[in-house]
Amino acid sequence: MIRTGKIVAAGLTAVALALATGAADAKDKVKVGFIGPLTGGVSVNGIGGRNSADLAVKLRNADSKAKYEYELVVLDDECKPNVAVQVATKMSADKEIIAAATHYCSATAIATVDTYHKFGFPVIVWGAVLPDITYRNKYAEVHRVNGTMINQNDANAELISKLGYKTVAVIHDTTDYGKGHNEYFSKALAKIGKAKIVATFGVTAEQQDFTAELTQIKALNPEVIYFGGLTPIGVRIRSQMDKLGIKAVFDATSGIVSDAYIQGLGPLAEGTLAFREGAPTEKLPGGKFFMEKYNAQKYDNPPEAYGAFAYAAMDMILNTIEKVGPDRKKVIADLGNVKDRDSIVGKITFDDHGQNTVAVITKYVIQDGKFVEWDDSEYASGKRKLPGQK
Amino acid sequence: MDVGLFAQYVMNGLMLGMMYALVAVGFTLFFGVLDVIKFSHGDVVTVGAFAALATFAGLHKLGFNSQWLDLVVMLAVAMLAMAALGMLIARYLVMPLRSAPALNTLLITLMLGTVLRESVRLFYPQGGNPKPFPALLPRSSIDLGSFNFRLDNVLMLAAGGLAIVGLQFLLNRTKLGLAIRAVAQDEETARTMGINFTAIVLITFAIGSGLAAFAGVMNGLYYNEINFGIGLYLGVVGFAAAIIGGLGSIYGAILGGFLFAGLQTIGTVLLPFASAYKDVFAFAVVIAIMAWRPTGLIQEKISERV
């Protein structure tokens, strides 16, 4: 064992030396991190985010004016809180990594904020929407470029009420993410006061069979089924609704805004509603630039809904390091007063909780296998109709 | 509760129960011949479903478009491939550990299950995403108020029933079945009677794993969606069903499967609190049954306790 250990160590040293000499003539090396779900049911979003963060680093390294050469360290949180805490600890404990863009899943982002705080490791959340991530504590280390689910559920409740629907059944997963959606959607709907919730079902995030819940829902005959959760069970619920002959509108959240949802369902995806903070990538101020650069890299996967935010988060980290140097404390201090900073997702302003205060919400409906903005869709113009739409 | 709604619950429960029973039967078969728990069984269900899906994609590339032909070829390929996989597992992982403590077999198959599951996720193209499974059965349905009576459900139930009846016939009416039962009862006597022990064990694993593939395809046809995680849960439920039915008893496994599905449905429908607790309820009842009847509802005829 000792022998193999030595050989492995020698090999590693050789590799390290080779790497080091390769970049010997270059600038100082600075490591930055990225964490997202790279495997598992929502991995497409994680990989899209990873590619986008990678793009930010590549563009910076190609820039001759940059003071440092950056290396991106990527870790996989699998969208599981326990795994996320492990990788967050691993990354925070590595003093060479200065800052990171972290997490797509709310359940993992909320699980790790304490870790980042404990290690004094500055992070910018790039995709998770649970309000508590920034608002439960007041950690100087934690920031977020995307909006929270409060805004998207307000917009959701407003659209449902405006379309004249009166009865809604809620299905949500019982993670922090799903529970948050349930809470903010229910509140928003009650505030408008036009539609009422006839039943609420909490389901586990790995559940396969929803026929029992859906049969109960069928008996209540609601016009809308609201779903607070992520793509994998969203696909299952929508497809099992069809099996049971339920014709309600499927009203979902940012959790299903990914091509995997449409691929998983085919034609059944038609007419699903979804909401997301920020504008679609093409409509963002820097969207065109981002898509051009992204496509030029020929990544295997599209950036997905939150790729632009991952890019913006990473770009902001790199800007800050360029400005104050590779020092965690200085980076935290500088991120503490971000105001009207330009980015490809628009101006970014962090409030005292590190939360970006923009609240643009995009409403989507799936039309012909694509997420189409509601206002541009044939459903809004009246050419097509959702079930029960007047 | 109105009749239609009740019928819908019964249909949901029957479909679930059929899938659980098919998986549970595998557990019970393996335990019968070798007295081992093979925990990778659930993941063989997953691999079977994905094998069928890959076959479907292949058939489409070759230009075949007949639903029935697709279905038959998919079932055949998936079942044969899983039968072969089951035999490999038995020959190279389970049998070499026969003289080791039973715990080792349990652990090694548990780990194998993880390997199978992760392999699907990593090596199947975009295996991490939910995959649409083609709807190959006739889709006609009759809407009877709250009851959506679907032809494909009936066909699947009938097919599952036939598979179980076929297995019963094989076990009770054929020479091969006699040999399997002999090995299950007493390995050494069976050997002295000239039964090829290894061959019988391998065949039994092939049968159990083929049934797992059948359950996997059924799962795909029923939900029209499969993902790499389906087997993990089915494995746990199938195992629990085999235990409450009485490990080693085929009828017990079937009874256990339907009982568990019934408990889950009851958990959702009748309990006042959120349906998130339906598994808590179902497994709690399993624990209670095990406390009441430690050897299961239907016991093996020959007790091995000396």
In short:
The complex is a heterodimer of chains A (390) and B (306). Chain A has 390 residues and is of the alpha/beta class.
Features:
heterodimer, A: 390 residues, alpha/beta, Rossmann fold, 2 domains, five-stranded parallel β-sheet, four-stranded parallel β-sheet, 13 helices, 43% helix, 17% strand, elongated, B: 306 residues, mainly alpha, two-stranded antiparallel sheet, two-stranded antiparallel ribbon, 11 helices, 4 strands, 4% strand, globular
Overview of this protein structure:
The complex is a heterodimer of chains A (390) and B (306). Chain A is an alpha/beta fold. Helix content of chain A is 43%, strand content 17%. Chain A folds into two domains: 27-147 and 281-359, Rossmann fold, CATH 3.40.50.2300; 150-277 and 362-376, 3-Layer(aba) Sandwich (Rossmann fold), CATH 3.40.50.2300. Chain A is built from 13 helices and twelve strands. In chain A, α7 (176-192) links the parallel β6 (167-173) and β7 (196-203). Chain B has 306 residues and is mostly helical. Chain B has one domain (15-137, 149-292). Chain B is 72% helix and 4% strand. Chain B contains eleven helices and four strands. In chain B, strands 1-4 form a two-stranded antiparallel sheet. A two-stranded antiparallel ribbon of chain B has the order 2-3. The termini of chain B are far apart. The chains are: A alpha/beta (390), B mainly alpha (306). The interface between A and B is large, with 35 and 39 residues.
